[in-house]
């Protein structure tokens, strides 16, 4: 799992060429390998419980009788090694994410679009202004029709400006690995339009110093119309086309199997990935690595059934393979009771969690009864002999935190959430709840239910995701496609299925046709 | 006792002759009937086939004429004095049984035990 993840600062694929991307991948892999070796050298070596090493390639070199084999053999075990390397990884990745500067690439596309947009907006004005500036005397005077055209031009430009601001001048929320095809198409189209208009203008108007000013104004008006239509095209392509649902995406998180289904329209793979990630942050419960592993007591019991000792044999290559086979056979024949233990262990854990939850709820309820909101009229009625200390929310929160702190900590430990909630954050939340008159139950909602990932996120930096797909990411969604969104320690697997075609029929029911009879059951004596 | 619609119904029947008893102004037979084509066949406790809409004997007064004649509870009445009772309404059945100018009713009834008895006897016959 460690080797696969890319944890450099720019792990999203470059938009330019495949070769540069491959080169970058190779570079990343090199970097990751070197990091890995440095990580492995730091920690102490864990010796695997006997059960596996006879199958391991390293142990079959029995000739090499090394007395310090404990130091030189590095073997990967179940949980302890992974947990250390995960911490290292997250620490390093956090450093990288913090230190990655404002990427120039991120702002390239919006900048280009802005320049082009500005240019196309001032073009009609330039068309109008240039003849006036350059050969004003020879222009035909043009009265009312021109003024009408001026008005329409002005309003159309205003509308263009407002809609451009509304649609396109929004901060981009994601950087995609490849070109966004539709946006590039539109930029190209705008450039083409404006360039051809300028060409025509330059050849037919500027050179021969055209005197028909009304024609020129009409020409500028037609350019503004064309720009409005391009904007309509942009609206349809970028915003409207993908609204009608066409595919159902199943998103599964690889580590704990949490899955969701979403309906999307016709999108390319990269846009669908961005959309899925938006939903991920608010729908999926937060990934808690501490909750994944089976309790150690169950796993190790299975492995340590047989202890094998090698006592002073030189050529134990053959014997070890023979022994390993015997061990596998013995393990298969032995009755496996680990499911039993798992069941009881889980019941025990659940009972413990419920007990602690009960203690927590009681403690919080009691704590909340210690304070109440200070009303202004109380100040007049309370006796001057016992002035009540008036506190602001922060102090009130700190005052009532003490009695519930212990119960809270024990509960968080039991549900393995203690890494997500520091004491500071709990007091902040308590202050927030007190300010808004929330009940203890509302205060506890945050800790009793595993909330969506967004709740635990601080928005200071962007999130790094890698899109893994067998098809080019600008291809549109199709039936049966699968792509992965990878992060350091887990990934989301997305499967695409088309929504079924619906044939809706119609049956008309006359409201008078609802009639009923009693079921008869009579008995007559004769 | 199930039937195939459109095909003639075959059943092993017993002939029972009941003499009506005069009680005051009425002639009574001493049993109760249930069923009929206008009734709900699903609530019939005596029928095997719950879609059978025939006339069934639901109660017999002990010591009455029907009891004396050998009618049993749960019998399906197939004919009354030659008139068919397998496809009649409840009221029609009642009328056929309570005709004032008849003193005797001759019923053809069927029950499950009759079939089995016949099968039994036929079986022993074959063995011989």
TrEMBL record, chain A:
<comment type="similarity">
    <text>Belongs to the Vang family.</text>
</comment>
<protein>
    <recommendedName>
        <fullName>Vang-like protein</fullName>
    </recommendedName>
</protein>
<dbReference type="GO" id="GO:0001841">
    <property type="term" value="P:neural tube formation"/>
</dbReference>
<feature type="compositionally biased region" description="Basic residues">
    <location>
        <begin position="15"/>
        <end position="33"/>
    </location>
</feature>
<dbReference type="GO" id="GO:0035845">
    <property type="term" value="P:photoreceptor cell outer segment organization"/>
</dbReference>
<dbReference type="GO" id="GO:0055002">
    <property type="term" value="P:striated muscle cell development"/>
</dbReference>
<keyword id="KW-1003">Cell membrane</keyword>
<feature type="compositionally biased region" description="Basic and acidic residues">
    <location>
        <begin position="58"/>
        <end position="68"/>
    </location>
</feature>
<dbReference type="GO" id="GO:0033564">
    <property type="term" value="P:anterior/posterior axon guidance"/>
</dbReference>
<dbReference type="GO" id="GO:0048840">
    <property type="term" value="P:otolith development"/>
</dbReference>
<dbReference type="GO" id="GO:0071679">
    <property type="term" value="P:commissural neuron axon guidance"/>
</dbReference>
<dbReference type="GO" id="GO:0060971">
    <property type="term" value="P:embryonic heart tube left/right pattern formation"/>
</dbReference>
<feature type="transmembrane region" description="Helical">
    <location>
        <begin position="107"/>
        <end position="129"/>
    </location>
</feature>
<dbReference type="GO" id="GO:0035844">
    <property type="term" value="P:cloaca development"/>
</dbReference>
<dbReference type="GO" id="GO:0048570">
    <property type="term" value="P:notochord morphogenesis"/>
</dbReference>
<feature type="transmembrane region" description="Helical">
    <location>
        <begin position="180"/>
        <end position="201"/>
    </location>
</feature>
<feature type="compositionally biased region" description="Low complexity">
    <location>
        <begin position="1"/>
        <end position="14"/>
    </location>
</feature>
<dbReference type="GO" id="GO:0060030">
    <property type="term" value="P:dorsal convergence"/>
</dbReference>
<dbReference type="GO" id="GO:0001736">
    <property type="term" value="P:establishment of planar polarity"/>
</dbReference>
<dbReference type="Pfam" id="PF06638">
    <property type="entry name" value="Strabismus"/>
</dbReference>
<dbReference type="GO" id="GO:0007015">
    <property type="term" value="P:actin filament organization"/>
</dbReference>
<dbReference type="GO" id="GO:0021535">
    <property type="term" value="P:cell migration in hindbrain"/>
</dbReference>
TrEMBL record, chain B:
<dbReference type="Pfam" id="PF00595">
    <property type="entry name" value="PDZ"/>
</dbReference>
<dbReference type="InterPro" id="IPR001478">
    <property type="entry name" value="PDZ"/>
</dbReference>
<dbReference type="GO" id="GO:0045197">
    <property type="term" value="P:establishment or maintenance of epithelial cell apical/basal polarity"/>
</dbReference>
<dbReference type="GO" id="GO:0016323">
    <property type="term" value="C:basolateral plasma membrane"/>
</dbReference>
<protein>
    <recommendedName>
        <fullName>Tax1-binding protein 3</fullName>
    </recommendedName>
</protein>
<dbReference type="GO" id="GO:0009966">
    <property type="term" value="P:regulation of signal transduction"/>
</dbReference>
<dbReference type="GO" id="GO:0019901">
    <property type="term" value="F:protein kinase binding"/>
</dbReference>
<keyword id="KW-0472">Membrane</keyword>
<keyword id="KW-0597">Phosphoprotein</keyword>
<dbReference type="GO" id="GO:0016055">
    <property type="term" value="P:Wnt signaling pathway"/>
</dbReference>
<dbReference type="GO" id="GO:0060028">
    <property type="term" value="P:convergent extension involved in axis elongation"/>
</dbReference>
<keyword id="KW-0879">Wnt signaling pathway</keyword>
<dbReference type="GO" id="GO:0043113">
    <property type="term" value="P:receptor clustering"/>
</dbReference>
<feature type="domain" description="PDZ">
    <location>
        <begin position="15"/>
        <end position="112"/>
    </location>
</feature>
<dbReference type="GO" id="GO:0005634">
    <property type="term" value="C:nucleus"/>
</dbReference>
<dbReference type="GO" id="GO:0005737">
    <property type="term" value="C:cytoplasm"/>
</dbReference>
<keyword id="KW-0963">Cytoplasm</keyword>
<dbReference type="GO" id="GO:0097120">
    <property type="term" value="P:receptor localization to synapse"/>
</dbReference>
<dbReference type="InterPro" id="IPR050614">
    <property type="entry name" value="Synaptic_Scaffolding_LAP-MAGUK"/>
</dbReference>
<keyword id="KW-1003">Cell membrane</keyword>
<dbReference type="GO" id="GO:0098609">
    <property type="term" value="P:cell-cell adhesion"/>
</dbReference>
<keyword id="KW-0539">Nucleus</keyword>
């Amino acid at each position: 799992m460690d080797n696969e993840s890319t944890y450099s600062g720019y792990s999203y694929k470059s938009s330019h060429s495949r070769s540069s991307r491959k080169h970058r991948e190779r570079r990343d892999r090199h970097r990751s390998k070197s990091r890995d070796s440095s990580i492995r050298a730091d920690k102490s070596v864990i010796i695997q419980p006997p059960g596996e090493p006879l199958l391991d390639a390293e142990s079959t070199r029995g000739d090499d009788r090394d007395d310090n084999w404990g130091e030189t053999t590095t073997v990967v075990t179940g949980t302890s090694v992974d947990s250390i390397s995960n911490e290292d990884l997250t620490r390093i990745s956090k450093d990288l994410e913090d230190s990655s500067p404002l990427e120039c690439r991120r702002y390239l596309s919006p900048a280009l679009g802005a320049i082009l947009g500005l240019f196309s907006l001032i073009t009609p004005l330039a068309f109008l202004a240039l003849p006036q500036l350059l050969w004003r005397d020879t222009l035909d005077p043009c009265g009312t029709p021109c003024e009408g055209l001026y008005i329409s031009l002005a309003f159309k430009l205003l509308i263009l400006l407002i809609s451009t601001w509304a649609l396109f001048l929004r901060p981009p929320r994601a950087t995609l690995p490849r070109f966004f095809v539709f946006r590039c198409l539109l930029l190209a189209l705008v450039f083409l339009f404006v360039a051809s208009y300028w060409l025509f203008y330059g050849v037919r108007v500027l050179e021969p110093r055209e005197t028909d000013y009304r024609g020129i104004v009409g020409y500028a008006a037609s350019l503004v119309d064309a720009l409005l239509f391009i904007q309509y095209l942009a609206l349809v392509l970028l915003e409207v086309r993908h609204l009608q649902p066409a595919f159902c995406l199943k998103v599964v998180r690889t580590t704990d199997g949490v899955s969701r289904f979403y309906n999307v329209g016709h999108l390319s793979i990269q846009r669908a990935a961005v959309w899925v990630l938006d939903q991920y942050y608010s729908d999926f419960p937060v990934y808690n690595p501490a909750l994944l592993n089976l309790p150690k007591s169950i796993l190790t019991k299975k492995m340590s059934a047989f202890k094998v000792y090698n006592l002073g044999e030189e050529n134990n290559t053959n014997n070890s393979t023979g022994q390993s086979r015997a061990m596998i056979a013995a393990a298969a024949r032995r009755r496996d009771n680990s499911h039993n233990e798992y069941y009881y262990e889980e019941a025990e854990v659940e009972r413990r969690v419920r007990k602690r939850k009960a203690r927590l709820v009681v403690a919080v309820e009691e704590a909340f009864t210690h304070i109440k909101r200070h009303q202004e009229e109380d100040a007049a009625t309370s006796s001057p002999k016992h002035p009540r200390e008036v506190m602001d929310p922060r102090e009130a929160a700190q005052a009532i935190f003490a009695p519930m702190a212990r119960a809270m900590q024990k509960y968080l430990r039991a549900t393995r959430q203690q890494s997500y909630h520091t004491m500071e954050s709990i007091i902040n939340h308590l202050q927030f709840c007190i300010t808004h008159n929330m009940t203890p139950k509302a205060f506890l909602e945050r800790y009793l239910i595993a909330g969506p990932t967004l709740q635990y996120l601080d928005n200071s930096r962007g999130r790094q995701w890698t899109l893994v797909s067998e098809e080019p990411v600008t291809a549109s969604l199709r039936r049966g496609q699968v792509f992965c969104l990878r992060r350091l320690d887990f990934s989301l697997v997305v499967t695409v299925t088309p929504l079924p075609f619906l044939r809706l029929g119609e049956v008309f029911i006359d409201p008078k046709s609802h009639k009923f009879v009693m079921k008869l059951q009579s008995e007559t004596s004769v | 006792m199930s039937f195939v619609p459109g095909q003639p119904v075959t059943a092993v029947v017993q002939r029972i002759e009941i003499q009506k008893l005069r009680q005051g102004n009425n002639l009574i037979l001493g049993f109760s009937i249930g069923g009929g084509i206008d009734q709900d066949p699903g609530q019939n406790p005596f029928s095997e086939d719950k879609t059978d809409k025939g006339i069934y004997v639901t109660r017999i007064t002990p010591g009455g004429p029907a009891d004396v004649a050998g009618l049993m509870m749960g019998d399906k009445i197939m004919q009354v004095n030659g008139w068919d009772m397998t496809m009649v309404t409840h009221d029609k059945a009642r009328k056929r049984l309570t005709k004032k100018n008849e003193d005797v009713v001759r019923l053809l009834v069927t029950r499950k035990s009759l079939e089995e008895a016949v099968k039994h006897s036929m079986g022993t016959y074959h063995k011989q």
